[in-house]
From TrEMBL:
UniProt xrefs under CDD domains: PLPDE_III_DapDC
Protein name: Diaminopimelate decarboxylase
Organism: Anaerocolumna chitinilytica
Biological process according to GO: lysine biosynthetic process via diaminopimelate
Record's signal peptide: none
Lyase recorded as keyword: yes
Length: 421
C-alpha cells in the first residue's frame, strides 16, 4: 500500500484554485531525502550529488536542491542555461551528453562546467572548439553484460555511451598532452535498480579502473562519478533501497581498493534523478468517464502527455482513489487517458475500489521523468506543476500550457494576436 503525501481534503482545496490535471511535488520529502543522501556519503569529504536536471527540469525544484548542497547534472544547452540562471557555478555543473552539438560544448566551457566526454573523438572536437580544460571527465563503458549476485542488471555492450577501457587509457594520455591535469571517471551501467548492491558493485569496478588508469597513465584521478541507477520501488510490495546501507557499501569498496593504492583523496559524486525526486511527485487527475464494453474503463482528464512512462515502457505506477483507500479492491479497470492511441493507459487490468466520475485520482511516483517527458501529441496541452511547501501551502511553479503556447510559431503570430484566451 502506498500512501499519498497529500490528503483528500488538501486536494479538494487545491483543485478549487488549480483544476486537475497537475503534477504536485512534496518539498518536505525532497529536502529530507537530499539530506539523507548526504548523510550516507558523509564519510567522503568531497562528496557531491549532481541532480539529473533531465528528470525534473523545474527551476523551483532545482533551487530547493541547490539549497541542500546539490549540483546540476546537465545534458543539453537548455539545461546548462537553466542551471546558470539559477546560480549554479563552475564545478557545481556536470555536463554529460552524447552526439554533442558544438554549441553545447562551447556553452559548458563558457560556464567552466566539468565536462564529461562520452566518446574518444570528442577529445579532438573539444580541443578544436575551446581547448581542453585542466579538469576533465570521461565516461566508461565496460561492454558485455553487467551482473550482480542476484542476476543480470543490464547490457552495457548494447548501450551507445562511453569509452572502452583501451580508449580511456589512450584518451587520458592524449588529454594530458593537451593540458588536462585532473581527471574524473563516470559510468552508468543499470537503470532503476532496487537493490543495495548496485552502487557498491559499480563503485568497486570504477575504483579498480581508477587504480589501473593511474598506474598506466600517471593521471591524477580527482573524482569518480557513480552516476544514477539507484531506483525506487514503484510497486507497493517492493523493498526500497536503503541509501545508508548503499553509502556504507561504497565506503567499504573505497577502503578496500583506493586507500591502499594511495588514492584516499578521490571524491565521490552521484547523479541521481529518480531516487531524489520520483517518490515526491504525484500526478493528480479526476475521473471523468466510464466505459463498459469488453473491459471496464475509467477515463481521466490526464493522459500520456502528462505521464508517458506507462505507454512507453509498460511501467507500473501505483494509483490511489482518494477517499477510498480503505475500500475493497474489487473492480478491475483499465485506467486511460483521451489520446488517439490505445497505449494511453495508466493501468491495465488493475484492481481498484469502485471509481465514480468526479473521484480524485493520485498516480504515484511521478516526481522524476513525469512532467519532463511530456509532449503535445493530439494537440494536448501540458499541465501545471505545483509545489506543496513545508508549511502546507501550495505554490504554482509552472503554469499549464495554453493554445497560444501550442501555436507559438512565427507563422501564427498575426493570427493569434486577435484571439482571446
Amino acid at each position: 500500500m502506498k500512501t499519498p503525501f497529500v490528503t483528500k481534503e488538501q486536494l479538494e482545496a487545491i483543485v478549487k484554485e488549480y483544476p486537475t490535471p497537475f503534477h504536485l511535488y512534496d518539498e518536505k520529502g525532497i529536502r529530507e531525502n537530499a539530506r539523507k543522501l548526504k548523510q550516507a556519503f558523509s564519510w567522503n569529504k568531497g562528496f557531491k550529488e549532481y541532480f539529473a536536471v533531465k528528470a525534473t527540469p523545474n527551476p523551483f525544484i532545482l533551487q530547493i536542491l541547490k539549497e541542500e548542497g546539490c549540483g546540476a547534472d546537465c545534458s543539453s544547452l537548455t539545461e546548462l542555461m537553466m542551471s546558470d540562471a539559477l546560480g549554479f557555478r563552475e564545478s557545481d555543473i556536470m555536463f554529460s551528453s552524447n552526439t554533442t552539438p558544438s554549441e553545447e560544448f562551447i556553452k559548458a566551457s563558457e560556464l567552466n562546467a566539468i565536462i564529461n566526454l562520452d566518446d574518444y573523438t570528442h577529445i579532438d572536437i573539444l580541443n578544436e572548439l575551446t581547448g581542453i580544460p585542466k579538469t576533465i571527465c570521461c565516461r566508461y563503458n565496460p561492454g558485455g553484460v553487467f551482473t550482480i549476485s542476484n542476476g543480470i542488471m543490464d547490457n552495457p555492450g548494447d548501450a551507445k555511451y562511453g569509452f572502452t577501457k583501451e580508449q580511456l587509457i589512450d584518451g587520458y594520455k592524449k588529454l594530458m598532452s593537451l593540458g588536462a591535469e585532473e581527471f574524473g571517471i563516470h559510468s552508468f551501467l543499470a537503470s532503476n535498480t532496487v537493490t543495495n548492491e548496485y552502487y557498491p558493485v559499480l563503485a568497486k569496478i570504477l575504483f579498480e579502473l581508477a587504480v589501473e588508469l593511474n598506474e598506466k597513465t600517471g593521471a591524477k584521478i580527482k573524482f569518480i562519478n557513480l552516476s544514477g541507477g539507484v531506483g525506487i520501488p514503484y510497486k507497493p510490495d517492493q523493498e526500497p533501497n536503503d541509501i545508508l546501507a548503499i553509502g556504507e557499501g561504497v565506503r567499504k569498496a573505497f577502503e578496500e581498493v583506493l586507500v591502499p593504492a594511495g588514492m584516499g583523496d578521490v571524491e565521490i559524486y552521484t547523479e541521481l534523478g529518480r531516487f531524489m525526486l520520483a517518490p515526491y511527485g504525484h500526478l493528480v487527475a479526476t475521473a471523468i468517464h466510464e466505459k463498459h464494453i469488453y473491459k471496464e474503463y475509467i477515463g481521466l482528464d490526464a493522459c500520456a502527455v502528462d505521464l508517458m512512462r506507462p505507454a512507453m515502457y509498460g511501467a507500473y505506477h501505483h494509483i490511489t482513489v482518494m477517499g477510498k483507500e480503505n475500500e475493497p479492491l474489487d473492480h478491475m479497470y483499465d485506467v486511460t487517458g483521451s489520446l488517439c492511441e490505445n497505449n494511453d493507459k495508466f493501468a491495465i487490468d488493475r484492481m481498484l475500489p469502485e471509481i465514480d466520475k468526479g473521484d480524485l485520482i493520485v498516480i504515484h511516483d511521478t516526481g522524476a521523468h513525469g512532467y519532463a517527458m511530456g509532449y503535445n501529441y493530439n494537440g494536448k496541452l501540458r499541465s501545471a506543476e505545483l509545489l506543496l511547501q513545508e508549511d502546507g501551502s501550495v505554490k504554482l511553479i509552472r503554469r499549464k500550457e495554453s493554445p497560444k503556447d501550442y501555436f507559438s510559431t512565427f507563422d501564427f503570430c498575426d493570427v493569434l494576436k486577435d484571439i482571446k484566451y
